[in-house]
Amino acid sequence: MDVLQLDVSGRPQAWITTREAAVIYACDGVAWTLGEPCQVLRGGWQRVSGRQSRIEVHSIIAVRGTVPSRAWRQAPALSNAKLFARDRYVCAYCGHHCLPEDLTREHIHPTSRGGYDSWMNCITACRPCNGRKGSRLPEEANMSLLYLPYVPSLHEDMILRGRRILADQMEFLLASVPRSSRLHG
């Protein structure tokens, strides 16, 4: 289970392990938390009091100070896994829902003809549709798009990374995702 790390303003920064979160707790680096504790880590015993140290790790933590953030300055990295998740594993040409291994990254404007490998030029396509379109533009292949590509927001990107997301983490992230996003679907 991963912890969603935020900056003090509530902007998502990273997915971190519970052990990494415990270090932040131990260094008094947590500004605030959301949700109930998701894991309790126990440490050594205090000689004077006889009590065991314990850290309750919440699923969402905001970290004090400045946290390096590159994600909000640029478009999220494009990967097949995130692209397929963005497009909900549906071929943009035929509309069939497919398994990830049956899908391909399709360039609307083919790279062989100067197209870029970017969120706005890539959609999910099944192997037969990708092969049928080939290195042509959709209109040249007489194939139309059933949906348009878009660049995911920072909050959407955190969801698309394919982690096991707890309900309170998903609720927090979806609250900042536009209602028009396919992730609400």
Automatic annotation (TrEMBL):
UniProt entry keywords in alphabetical sequence: Endonuclease, Hydrolase, Nuclease
Keyword Transmembrane assigned: no
Ranges for domain HNH nuclease: 78-131
CDD domains per record: HNHc (cd00085)
Lineage: superkingdom: Bacteria
Bilayer-crossing regions: none
Pfam families referenced in this protein's UniProt entry, alphabetically: HNH_5
Coiled coil keyword on record: no
GO molecular function, one term: endonuclease activity
Protein's name in the database: HNH endonuclease
Source species of the chain: Pelomonas parva
